[in-house]
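Weekly modeling sync, notes
Attendees: S.R. (lead), two postdocs, one rotation student

Agenda item 3: backlog of single-chain predictions. S.R. asked that every request posted to the team notebook include the full sequence so nobody has to chase files. The rotation student volunteered to paste the first one in as an example of the format we agreed on. Action items at the bottom.

Example entry:
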Amino acid sequence: PTPSQTPRALSELLRSLQLNIFASENPVLQPESPPSDITTLADKLKQQKGITITHEVIDGAGHFFDPGMDEMIAHVDAYVRRRMTEGTR
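Predicted structure, as returned to the notebook:
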């Protein structure tokens, strides 16, 4: 996004992008939402026009990414840096 973009255009762009980081050992989501279900959902969303999904799984991470916090932060940092330097989607 550039400063010259309208708030509406920026809002639409942000709605079309998504970073999904899943903690593989999250007891809050399991067994109702096992990792395979989350991956299947992300794969289906990736097929929709106008939506860009980045899906990452952090193996061994718990609900609060402990362990896994450093890896989660690295994924978020890389995602934000990549999106900020892209000219287009």
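Discussion: group reviewed the output briefly. Strands lie at 17-23, 52-58.
Action items: rotation student to repeat for the remaining queue; S.R. to check formatting next week.
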